[in-house]
Each structure stands twice: as C-alpha cells, then as structure tokens.
Amino acid sequence: MEQIKEIRSIRKEQFDALYRISRLLNEATVQENLVEKALDLVVDAIRAERALFVRYRPGDEPFTIIAARNIQKETIKDLSAFSSGILQKVIEQQTPCLYHDVQSDPQISQFESVRIQNIKSVIGVPIFNQGQIWGVILADSRTHRQEFNEENLRFLEFFANMVSLALEKIIYLEDLQKENAALRHELDLSAPLPEIIGESPAMKKFSTLLRKVAQTDATVLITGESGTGKELAAKAIHLLSKRRDKAYLAQFCGSIPDTLLESELFGYKKGAFTGATADKKGLFEVADGGTFFLDEIADISMALQAKLLRVIQNQEIIPLGSTKVKKVNVRIVAATNKDLYQLVKEGKFREDLFYRLNVFPIHIPPLRDRLGDVALLANHFAKTFGGKQYRFDPAALKKLEQYSWPGNVRQLQNVIQRAIILSEDQRILPEHIILDDWESPEQFEGTLKDFEKLLLKRRLAKYGGNRTLTAQSLGVSVRWIQLKLKEMEGESQT
Ligand SMILES: Nc1ncnc2c1ncn2[C@@H]1O[C@H](COP(=O)(O)OP(=O)(O)O)[C@@H](O)[C@H]1O
Ligand SMILES: [Mg+2]
C-alpha cells in the first residue's frame, strides 16, 4: 500500500521512464549495455547531471564501476570524479539518501570531490541481492541544474528495486548457464553415445570425433563399409547437436531415378511436369533448421551433384519448375561405402562437391578391425531382440569373435536374431550361431553356382561396388560381371 501511494506521487514523466526501464530489464537476453541504457533513462527522468552504478564488495577496493553515464550519454570510466564518501554513507545506512545543497552541508562538503565538481545535490540508493547490498546507484546534479527532491528519491528507489529483481534473475541465469556448460563438457568427454555400442579404441576415437563435430555446423562425410553404422552415426550427430529439437531427415540416394530424387529433395511447382498437380515442398525445405542425411551419396547423378553443391555452398534451393531461389538452413551429413576420391579421379563424382562434403570426414572401421566389440554388441542385440538377458556359451562367443563379418554390425545383428530363435533356456551355443556364408571353402556347403555368386558379391562389397576392380581381382571381364549381376537380379525377382 505504501508503495502504491508512493508511486502516485511520481510525475508522469518519471513514471513513463520507470515503465521503459522495466521493459528494458525484462528483456529475455542480457545485453551488455543494458545498465547503461537504463542509466540514460534515469539521467533524463530526474534531470541529473550524471548517474553511476557501482558494484560493492566489502574489502580493500570495495567499489567497481559497472556503468556511469553523464548527460551527454557518455561513459565515465573514473570513479574519482564522484564522492566515495557518499557511496560509503549509503552502504552504512543501507537506505536511500538524499542530500540537498551539499555545498553548504558541512557533513558532505568535507568531501573534496563534491567541492571540485561543484555538486549541488546527490541521491544515493542501495541495490540489494538476497538481502545483501550488491551495489549503489548514485545520481548528482550540479549547481546550475535543478535540485533533487523527495519525488526523485522515490523514483530512484523504484528503479533500484527493479534493478535488484532483474539482477537476481540475471545472476541466477548466468549461474545456471555456467553449470550447464560445465556439465555438458563433462558429458562430452566421457559418456558413451546413446545406442552406439563399442568400447574398442577405434570406437572410442570415433565417439570423441562424433561429439566434437556435433557441436558445429560443419558438413560431415561418414565413410565405412555397409553395415558399419553410418546411418546410426548420422542420427547421433543430429541428436548431439544444437539442432536436436529441429527436424532430422534422411534420404537414401542409391538406385532411385534421378527426377524422382530431385523432386523429393528440392520439391516442385504445380505444373512442373505432368502429374505435378500442386506445389510440393522439397525435403531440404522441410528439414529447414535441422539436419539432412544423404545416404549413399556416391550414387547421385552429375546433374544432381551440381544442385547439391548449391545447397551446401549457398544454402539455397530452386524447386523444379520454379525460378525463385529459396533460402534453407540445413546441416548436411552424407554417407558412402565407396571410395569417393577414387570416383572423383574416374570423373564420376564432382571434385568441388567432394571437397565440400569432405569438410569433416569420419571413417567407421569394419567390424573385423574391432573384434573386441563383438561380445558387447552380441549381448546388446540379444537383449534388445529377446527382451531379456541371454547367456553366451564361451565357445559361441569364440565363434563370433573369430569370424570376419563381411556384413559388419548389420550381419551380426541378423546372426544374433537367428541365434535367439534357435536357443533354449536363454543359452546361446555354438550351433545356434549360423554364419550365412563361409569363412573357408571347406565349410561351404552350397553348389558351385552358389559359390560363384557369393564370391562375386563379397568381392564387389570389398571394392565398394567398383566393377572394374572386382573384375581385375577375379580375373574376368567387366562384361562377365554385368551379365552375372543381371542373372542374379532376374533370380531374385522371380
Ligand atoms: N556400434 C553400434 N551399436 C549398436 N548398433 C549398431 C552399431 N553399429 C551399427 N549398428 C546397427 O547395425 C545396423 C546397421 O547400421 P547402419 O547404420 O544402417 O549401417 P550403414 O548405414 O553403415 O549400412 C543398424 O540396425 C544399426 O542400428
Ligand atoms: Mg546405410
């Protein structure tokens, strides 16, 4: 009630200033010059000569200037022009102080600065934070200007109260931010990636890289054989990044007709082609603000490569049939199991795009190079598929750990899934582990034709689908390989 009566005693001009100050202090983000702006309003509102905002910390040098403004809206850096005696008095009395006609007040005029500066009246108001004096606001006027009155004192008191409230909020927020940053840093370094299993040195190195790059907006190129977890890694990058609350979209680029892929990625205008009966948003636009994963990037056509380059370079897209450029903000993660650099040398992949993608390459090693992770992964998959804990017979684990896993983690996942079906009493024995191809020719039980197919498939996988290299290594012609693949395609369709 007291406060309401007091606020009524404030003239409209000062009341307006209070309103503007409260808006300023309530802004969501803390601006560095926030206090200065507020002080300028104070100087104007009470027609002061200067206003000062000092931080108080008991000790040898108790006062530091946070902001000091004069009527010209200039910053004052030096405290010596102000009366430290008056600051001291406010601290001691812990209440707002108003001094009139200080030149004739023997108590105040003893302060040298008051005499030198020709100061007429001074107001000092304490600012509290959690019951303690945190700082002081001081305003003064010189002889040729007006004298402060009780109303000005009330005004400054309101101002100080508002600053105190804002201050508590700011300090609290800053503490939280610091704590948050510290926790995040700790997490970054040690915690394992969610759902990405692996404790081998190779995987540890991989997790560290992933966490580091996730904090940036850099384009990432993930390489590794099929089934090594490239897609999983791309998703992890998104979830660990500051874009985590925005969209994550993935597009598989292998064996998709060019025009279809283009319309998916970039969208189209109504009438761009027969069948385009309405505008369609491209996926890059849908993913705006988020992350876009381009899987099997090596398979896209040269024409699309050029368009993709534009997305990465200029962050813009042009929908099919449109002339208008649209701005998008997407973080690109791409993956391939091929040797992109080799494709560049063969003229099948744009060199400029390669360098744009290869900003931050991450290679995931094949499972055979981190066999130490096999047991961990096997237990993880058994638990996720089986819904309960399974026990691996030592011989069964040994069988898993001695295998070379051409299909990598995906193959291991399938093998475990099968083992669980075959197992009894939640025990997995060696005979439950069925490896769907052979390790040595003696173990192979199929026909010669099956063997031919299997060998071709594995060799193709080894050379990342490169038919020339596969043909060379098998001592056959590229044409022979093409024929065989056609044959196999026909078989799988019937
Ligand atoms: N380190 C890992 N921990 C757990 N699961 C994995 C790991 N690596 C791969 N996987 C699983 O193996 C399968 C194949 O992974 P994926 O990311 O599709 O491989 P790629 O894209 O390289 O072919 C997926 O089901 C994935 O969840
Ligand atoms: Mg994949």
How is this structure best described in words?
- This protein is of the alpha/beta class and 494 residues long.
- It has four domains: 2-174, 2-Layer Sandwich (Beta-Lactamase); 201-363, Rossmann fold; 367-436, Helicase, Ruva Protein, domain 3; 440-494, Arc Repressor Mutant, subunit A (Orthogonal Bundle), CATH 1.10.10.
- Helix content is 47%, strand content 15%.
- The chain contains 20 helices and 16 strands.
- The strands form five sheets. The chain has a five-stranded antiparallel sheet, sandwiched between helices. It has a five-stranded parallel sheet with strand order 7-10-13-6-14. A two-stranded antiparallel sheet has the order 8-9.
- A hairpin with a 6-residue loop joins strand 1 and strand 2 (63-70).
- The longest helix is centred in the middle third of the chain and has 41 residues, at 150-190.
- The chain is elongated.
- It starts with a helix and ends with a helix.
- Bound molecules: adenosine-5'-diphosphate (ADP) and magnesium ion.
Short description:
The protein is an alpha/beta fold. The chain has 20 helices and 16 strands.
Bound molecule types = adenosine-5'-diphosphate, magnesium ion
Ranges where pLDDT stays below 50 over 5 or more residues in a row are: none
Estimate nothing, just give the exact number of structural domains: 4
Strand percentage:
15-25%
CATH superfamily of the largest domain: GAF domain
